[in-house]
């Protein structure tokens, strides 16, 4: 049997963040899948984090696969939904809050690059994705849980990725040519997530203006596949419910969900 030394300092994560429990696995299918399987016990110890060095079946939005390799930071934060008083119709804001949190951290640790939040759930630099976010809501034992799955390409190289992924994604390592301490990046992201979610609850207008300042799509002509319709228009911004607002030939259209095909 080979012993696996965790590449994370779990004691430090528990000391420096509001997280009460870390469920760490060297390798698992997907941190979000495991979080949903263990949701009942994890809600009893929330906020909790499911953390892995490596995922074998990472999931993205709309049933997509999330490709990652060793060196990426992949985790899912489990929150009790009643601790996050954001109305159900405004839940898209949570992915945007997470995007803002990740963007803040990446800007701090890689100051030579510009990072943007791309509605509804990505962080990009230039046209390349560096982080994907998957927010899911689920019930266990009559309690509502929020599972915020975050994948950040940190010390992995996208040069190892399948061509269709490497063409449109990058990592901190590929950008900066250096490695980063994963525990440090995780702690920073968890601290920022706390701040940003609190900001969306207590100061929603300020939080929204920060999202709009960080938004990649604002001011661009954008094409979105939303609920089987293809919508093209000039992006005015993101509204208070987290919807993308497009000025189209038919007037203003608000997209609550969708896949951005062109921008
Ligand atoms: C997307 O870009 O569509 C979202 C990708 C989310 C990936 C993260 S990695 C950690 C967590 N576990 C998963 O299986 N998915 C999320």
What is the rounded distance between the termini? 50 Å
User: How confident overall, as mean pLDDT?
Assistant: 95
Largest sheet: 7 strands, mixed
- Please state the overall shape, judged from the principal axes of the Cα atoms: globular
Order of strands across the main sheet: 1-2-3-7-6-5-4
Query: Helix fraction?
Result: 25-40%
CATH class of the largest domain: Alpha Beta
Please tell me how large the radius of gyration is. 18 Å
What oligomerization state is this entry in? single chain
* Ligand catalogue: biotin
Give me the count of strands: 12
User: Element order, helices and strands?
Assistant: HEHHEEHEEEEHHHHEEEEE
Number of domains: 2
The H-level CATH homologous superfamily of the largest domain, spelled out, is Bira Bifunctional Protein, Domain 2
Query: Beta-sheet strand percentage?
Result: 25-35%
The stretches of 5 or more residues where confidence is low (pLDDT under 50) are none
**CATH fold name of the largest domain, please?**
BirA Bifunctional Protein, domain 2
Q: Do you know the CATH architecture of the largest domain? A: 2-Layer Sandwich
Total of DSSP H or I helical runs spanning 4+ residues = 8
Structural class: alpha+beta
In brief:
By secondary structure, this protein is of the alpha+beta class. The protein has eight helices and twelve strands.
What can you tell me about this protein's structure?
By secondary structure, the chain is α+β, with helices and mostly antiparallel strands. It folds into 2 domains: 10-214, Bira Bifunctional Protein, Domain 2 (BirA Bifunctional Protein, domain 2, 2-Layer Sandwich); 221-262, SH3 type barrels (Roll). It is built from 8 helices and 12 strands. The protein has helices at residues 10-16, 31-37, 39-43, 92-109, 163-166, 172-176, 182-202, 204-214, and strands at 21-28, 48-55, 73-80, 116-118, 122-125, 128-140, 143-152, 221-226, 229-238, 244-248, 251-255, 259-262. It has a 7-stranded mixed sheet with strand order 1-2-3-7-6-5-4, sandwiched between helices. A 5-stranded antiparallel sheet has the order 11-10-9-8-12. β5 and β6 form a beta hairpin. α4 (92-109) packs across α7 (182-202), α4 crosses α8 (204-214) and α7 crosses α8. The longest helix is centred in the last third of the chain and has 21 residues, at 182-202. The termini are far apart. The mean pLDDT is 95. It binds biotin. The site of biotin has 21 residues, from α2, β3, β6 and β7.
């Amino acid at each position: 049997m080979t012993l696996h030394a965790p590449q994370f300092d779990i004691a430090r994560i528990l000391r420096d963040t509001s997280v009460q429990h870390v469920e760490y696995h060297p390798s698992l299918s997907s941190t979000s899948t495991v979080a949903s399987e263990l949701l009942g016990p994890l809600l009893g110890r929330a906020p909790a984090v499911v953390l892995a060095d490596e995922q074998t079946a990472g999931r993205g939005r709309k049933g997509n696969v999330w490709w990652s390799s060793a060196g990426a930071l992949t985790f899912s934060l489990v929150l009790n939904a009643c601790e996050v008083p954001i109305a159900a119709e405004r839940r898209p804001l949570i992915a945007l809050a997470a995007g803002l949190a990740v963007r803040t951290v990446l800007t701090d640790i890689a100051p030579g690059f510009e990072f943007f939040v791309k509605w509804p759930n990505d962080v990009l630099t230039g046209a390349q994705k560096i982080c994907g976010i998957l927010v899911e809501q689920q019930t266990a034992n009559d309690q509502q849980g929020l599972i915020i799955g975050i994948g950040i390409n940190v010390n992995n190289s996208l040069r190892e990725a399948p061509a269709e992924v490497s063409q449109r994604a990058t990592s901190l390592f590929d950008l900066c040519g250096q490695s980063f301490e994963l525990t440090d990046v995780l702690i920073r992201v968890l601290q920022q997530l706390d701040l940003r979610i609190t900001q969306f609850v207590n100061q929603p207008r300020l939080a929204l203006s920060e999202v709009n300042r960080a938004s990649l799509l604002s001011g661009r002509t954008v094409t979105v596949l939303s609920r089987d319709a293809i919508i093209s228009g000039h992006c005015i911004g993101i509204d208070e419910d987290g919807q993308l607002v497009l000025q189209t030939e038919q007037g203003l259209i608000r997209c609550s969900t969708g896949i951005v095909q062109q921008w």
